[in-house]
Design brief:
With 553 residues, the chain is an alpha+beta fold. Helices cover 26% and strands 20% of the residues. Bound molecules: flavin-N7 protonated-adenine dinucleotide (FAE).
Length: 553
Amino acid sequence: MSVQYGPSRRRVLGGGIALGAAALGGGVLLGGSGAEASEAAEAAEVARDGAFVPAVVVGTGYGAAVTALRLAEAGVRVLMLEMGRWWNRPAEDGRVFCGMLDPDRRSSWFRTRTAAPLGSFLWLDVVDRNIEPYPGVLDRVDFGSMAVYAGRGVGGGSLVNGGMAVAPRRDYLQRVLPRVDAGEMYRRYYPRARAMLRANGVDRTWFEGTEWYRYSRVAREQAARAGVRSVFLDNIYDFRYMRKEADGTAPRSALAGELIYGNNHGRMSLDKTYLAAALRTGRVTIATLHRARSVRRRRAGGYVLTVERSDETGRRTAVKEIGCRYLFLGAGSLGSTELLLRARETGTLPDLGPEIGRCWGPNGNVMAARANHPSDPTGCHQSTVPVLGLDAWDDPRHPVFAEVTPVPAGIETWISLYIAITRNPERGTFVYDRAADRMRLRWAPDQSRPAVDAARSFFDRVNRANRTDYRYDLFGPRAKAFADDFTYHPLGGCVLGRATDPYGRIPGHPGLYVTDGALIPGSLGVNPFLTITALAERNVERIVRQDVAPSRS
Ligand code: FAE
């Protein structure tokens, strides 16, 4: 079977019916028995060729999930299109996801070999594995001198990320998004996002004593010797569950080397939070293995999407056209930008402005590792869930916020590993390659230099204070202390207040919105999903009030 569907039930629409039913004509079933057996049929029908739905949301990541839930609560029927699959059923080995140390086809989006961020050990290619191509959960999109990791499947990045739920400094948020009232974000939308995402913190007493976080404590002491303060970071991993893992009363996930290829337990990914709530409304349908390819205006108003449906071998099984009145792009920084660039450059939406594709950045990401003294072991047992940040953002020349990340190899490695977020002012530009019908990124290798300079200045300081050195063997076959050629945090491409109005509306295109990381101009100073979620909450609240509600009445 090539398409899996969420557990939504058909339901007679409330206030949104007028819009939905009138527009749908006889096409999509509206009322109904709610029988479980008809769920797949319902989704197939809602996403059938020629269908019209009131609202389409492309993607199922953070911005998309918020948007779908709030639209549905306002009575609007929503179809979500997701190019990946559902991750809610165990495979033959009884697990939904594979682990980081035993990756199989579930790990990667259509690759023949895994492409882990930490690609080597003692310069040897011992980390990656040959695999069968499959719609696996983690994608790596290569753009030459920069690669972007992204989650694929229902839940987007929430299936694979480190789970750190961090709000940026208020002054930096104001600087990055000057059209957004930072006070309102902190008072209203960050708390809402945190609560919905079920962000929680590690118990400090347990943290101080457990073997699973020795690696974080070691990094904290070494940073302190260099005069750098540490901060605890909230996470969407359920720490009460982690305690049970440690006590041996629950199956292990974070304590069994699971993270970037998904967690079989403990992770509160979007399918368990926002998307579960959205599906409970009965107004949201998720069509998986459906990839939005292009968008054009609909003569009677709204938009028409061309959507490709594939099977799990990657074979295209259908091409459909789906009409909608409201189109929300939540396909992530890359996905949403590509859809709009293609529309502008191929002339299906020729009036899209010049800002589409601009102002992209990797959030200054740099990965680095240090070699500790034999007297400073970091532990054979490491929780995969990071909980500690080293905060040198006040450094006037080289602001750095570095997270202490695990090396869950199951053996002592004496390695301290970090993902550093720096304030790299360089920005990339996306251009549409007509011959290949895909987007390319203009990002030259030396555009990563400011990030590396900042990371070097920070880690040199930590090394000096501890008389330690870098590890040069972890980032590929060449001796390299800093991995500056990939990012976990793609940001920008359709920036709020430039490519869109201050709420994500595309100017001159009523009913067309961007609702994801594409809105943030390249840098945030911390990990982005909490801000993407809070911003989507802010934007959709306004859109429901001003754009959607009047059309329904
Ligand atoms: P995203 O979550 O990427 O969702 C986009 C969805 O759209 C995906 O499900 C795609 O499959 C789907 N899609 C794309 N194109 C199409 C199309 N054409 N048709 C249909 N579907 C499509 O978007 N952030 C943090 O804040 N804390 C962390 O600890 C953290 N760690 C990370 C670790 C890793 C390994 C990775 C990869 C990312 C990490 N991030 C972290 C980044 C975070 O996951 C990312 O910023 C958000 O997921 C972006 O949210 P969006 O809503 O923009």
